[in-house]
Specification:
It comes from Lasiosphaeris hirsuta. The protein has about 280 residues and is an alpha+beta fold. Bound molecules: 2-acetamido-2-deoxy-beta-D-glucopyranose (4 copies).
């Protein structure tokens, strides 16, 4: 009886237990350390909080962290992070416009207790999909991804569903997507927004492909979902999609797509070529 009581209490309290188990201070400090490590190119700033058996994934490949792009010092012009206290994970995007080493990097950091157990990253540079770090910085700085007042927040389920619907439309045109108006897509460094109230993200996608292997980090305080995935439409290229959702509808979409066989994953002419 006693045992049953405890089990029932655990089951009922599951969501709360999950979030209580995540220490936000530790998650934020781990994210700060990740940024410091990338900025200096030195693992000393993060090594003490890495789990002994950390999983490190870069552009879809499992690597040893010491031989990863994390040991390259980058002059970071802008960083932006979201925090998922249910899963104890963060997503950070870094923009580096330095012409000597331009980069746009997206990383999901997974924390358990006081250790980072997994870092899953997309690292893009010249030759990757529509890559333009200056363009990314220029447009990202103009957008408002700020905190949404509690009463207006969407649930995690609504945020996830909007993100999934957008990716599902690559497979099937008849998927119902909660398009917001205005909405803008920032892809590589190319921007669809014109600053008009009528700006739309419903501008067509390369069909008809699955977008598999989706890994989610969701922060409902800012209405954002980060998805790392395989971009089916361009040869399952390692990809990051970050969605800002307001009132259940898509407002901003940022993408990074790694082209192993640069330039631009082979799209050098036609509608998907860089400007
Ligand atoms: C979170 O971690 C910090 C730093 O270790 C600690 O001081 C704090 O007590 C922890 N918070 C909770 C709620 O456990
Ligand atoms: C190693 O990683 C696995 C899976 O991420 C985890 O379940 C396990 O607890 C870890 N072991 C140690 C010693 O950290
Ligand atoms: C990159 O973006 C910047 C800022 O929008 C723009 O001035 C520049 O022309 C772009 N470069 C290329 C190669 O498209
Ligand atoms: C949506 O399109 C798919 C094929 O792409 C089709 O199999 C399916 O029946 C369609 N669903 C609806 C509701 O029209």
């Amino acid at each position: 009886m006693r045992l049953f009581g405890i089990t029932a209490a655990l089951a009922l309290g599951l969501a709360q237990t999950a979030s209580a188990a995540c220490n936000e201070t530790i998650l934020r400090l781990a994210t700060d350390r990740y940024i410091a490590a990338q900025s200096t190119g030195s693992l000393q700033w993060i090594s003490e909080i890495l789990s002994d058996n950390i999983t490190y994934v870069e552009n879809g490949k499992f690597l040893g962290i010491a031989s990863s792009a994390l040991v390259e010092s980058l002059r970071i012009d802008r960083s932006h992070s979201i925090f998922d206290l249910v899963q104890c994970a963060s997503f950070t995007d870094l923009i580096v416009t330095n012409p000597a080493s331009p980069r746009v990097v997206g990383a999901q950091l997974w924390v358990a207790g006081d250790k980072v157990t997994k870092i899953d990253r997309i690292v893009t540079t010249t030759g990757d999909w529509l890559f333009n770090a200056t363009g990314t910085l220029h447009y990202a700085l103009r957008e408002d991804w700020g905190v949404i007042p509690p009463a207006q927040r969407d649930s995690r389920a609504v945020i996830k569903a909007a993100a999934d619907a957008y990716l599902d439309v690559f497979k099937s045109a008849n998927v119902s997507v909660p398009w917001g108006t205005p909405c803008a897509r920032l892809e590589g460094g190319a921007y669809t927004g014109k600053g008009l109230p009528s700006d739309s993200c419903n501008l067509g996608v390369i069909q008809s492909y699955d977008m598999p292997n989706r890994r989610y980090v969701i922060d409902e305080t800012v209405g954002v979902a980060s998805l790392l995935l395989e971009f089916g439409s361009i040869g399952n290229a390692p990809d990051s999609h970050q969605f800002r959702i307001e009132g259940g509808k898509l407002r901003f979409i940022h993408t990074m797509t790694y082209c192993e066989k640069k330039p631009n994953c082979g799209y050098t002419s036609g509608p998907f070529a860089p400007p």
